[in-house]
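task queued by scheduler; priority normal; single chain, no ligands, no partner chains; default sampling; output format set to structure tokens
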Amino acid sequence: MSSASSRRRCPVLAHAAALVATSIVTTSLFTLPALAQSRQSVLPPVTVQAPEQARQAAPRTRLQQRSASRSPRVTPAVAPTPAVAPTAVPRATARGPALTVLTVQQALADIQQTPGGVALVPANAYRSSTVSNTIKDILDYVPGVFAQPKWGDDTRLSVRGSGLSRNFHLRGVQLYMDGIPINTADGYGDFQEIDPTAYKYVAVYKGANALQFGANSLGGAINFVTKTGRDPFPNGVSVDAGAFGYRRLQANAGGVNGAWDGYVTASAQAAEGFRDHSNGQAYRLSGNIGYQITPDIETRFYLNANSVRQRIPGTVSKDTALNSPQTAAAGNLALDQQRNIDTVRLANKTTIRFDNTVVDLGAFGVDRHLMHPIFQWLDYRYQDYGGFAKVTDDREIGGYRNRLVAGVNILNGRLDNKQYVNIAGQKGALASSSLDKSTNTSVYIEDSFYVLHNVALVAGTQFLHATRDRRDRVLSDGNQSGSTEFNLWSPKGGLLWQIDPTWQAFANISRSAEVPSFGESASGPGIPTIPFTSIRPQRATTYEIGTRGNRPDLTWELTGYRAEIKDELLCLYSAFGNCNVTNADRTVHQGIEAGLGVALFNNLFERGPVADRLWLNMAYTLNDFRFDNDAKFGTNLLPGAPRHYLRAELLYKNPNGFYAGPNVEWVPQAYYVDSANTLQTEPYALLGLKAGIDNGGPYSVYIEGRNILNKTYIASASIIDKATASSPLFEPGTGRAVYAGFKVRW
């Protein structure tokens, strides 16, 4: 690529760099006095507690008290706002009250030692003020994340343009529950096992910033973390109800008994759904039991179980989506299409703490049964298993701080794959069957060397060894057996600058690699036959620069990135209306991720040590995804994600816990749904309102109105290579809806 061509194709990253530099210089005018201090080899370890945690600290056992008196590693303080501010970088050994599970503050401090795009969403940011029905409710205000509901719990999720060609299930983002993979061993992911009511925080690692999870994808990783019995308010009950027959009951219980602690949460929900043929119900359970063997050794056992029954309304034409949004696709009705899942997940994690080192060890097993009548009746039984080991060492070397993180992740599995003829939702004759086996072993190392007390040079790499093996057991339609092997290196390097205790700047260059699943292939009339064994891994080089911070009246995130991708897994062919995912040549994903939280006014009606305020919260994402001189599609835009996406809310917050205000979701520009750039969605803006009371105490209540102007819009879309006006690719958004909920905890 010529330098002139490179300059033409980097306007987003160049603009982002300018914005980041302007932000740093401007904010420096207010923070230079804080930097005029003597050189320290180590910043003081400080952990900040969220308000509700400060009100009721978890009871300490004698074992914990002995540990604290012997090794005081954490200095608690009360945060001035519900958001948790990044503070001075702590030592890796600053853990507690549970060693195996970080608190919100510890997790925030840990994630912000990453020189790239990351985010932490605590439960109090969404759990008590919204219906919390899907992953969208959790990730709505994380820039760079596009999450739009399709039906039931299913969501179209893309991080930095990951998995745009995945019209069903999930591809390109690795999902974890307490560090245990939700995705199958070959890369598929589902959202139906995610219960937004169950977690105390959710950590988002974009792109190669997810190195420690062994994530091998452009989108990175998302980790959903449940509470323990040592957390505040382990007991509780919540009730939610609202539009289209939605209702949910959730309960949790936990506590501490000497060295033991335990926690369990369960929910039951059901809904008729906005669209025809979209009714469903789900029962979910998560629990863990921990035992502190010594003050510095803890082991924890996990159980997660889910039973979900969900009907699928299907995608429809653009005309139907905008003029008859509740109508289900005729084929989905005729075949009674559904996605039903039963899952049991067991795991153990053990943490051992030394003076300067923490070792995490774990193992897990997952049994999943997918019962999925669609064009055929899919009967899939997954058995996945694996383990992980991670070492975090934080010490001084020659008077300079050095933080080393290294580990290994193993995820293996087998899929007993059977497909039957679908006869009105019932199993017919066996159509195909195979035994699919996948293995994934990733080894990683990352070192942060502090050349100054607040500036770290970061370098690391990951090696992934993966195999895919299929044994076809029905040969009447040809033998689809085959196997592949991948060996991929993904190095990275970056810089992290802790400008002051509440403000960071970062930059990095990283590689990522995404191994294809069994679903990638092409065949059909008029298109080349490409078996899954011929699909190459997707590789990307990403350049990233940004800044983030959190202060009492101001929080921000501003990141610019450019990913140059080779062999991206995209829809280049279609047959019978279905997308065939193969390798594109070269593509580019670049964008700007901007988040802002600011107190526009303080002391409106209340004056005192804690004032009332008018708080503006915004998340804006600019997506620029395109082919790079492709032989077939030239420089066309990649389909499947909006160029601009804005989520914003303006809330009045009173110290007594009352809050109220409007919110908006805005897609100002339609986006393409086909690689040929012939068919688009429609722009839309949705207005919402919510109000409630939540003062961090035992009771909270909310009422929320969504799409209160009853706007007809397209929430998400499947993609194809070349569409027509009648192509059934569109998922209509939900009409006007009102929800309310009540929560009690103790």
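post-processing summary
- Confidence is low (pLDDT under 50) at residues 1-11, 13-89.
- The longest strand covers residues 426-452.
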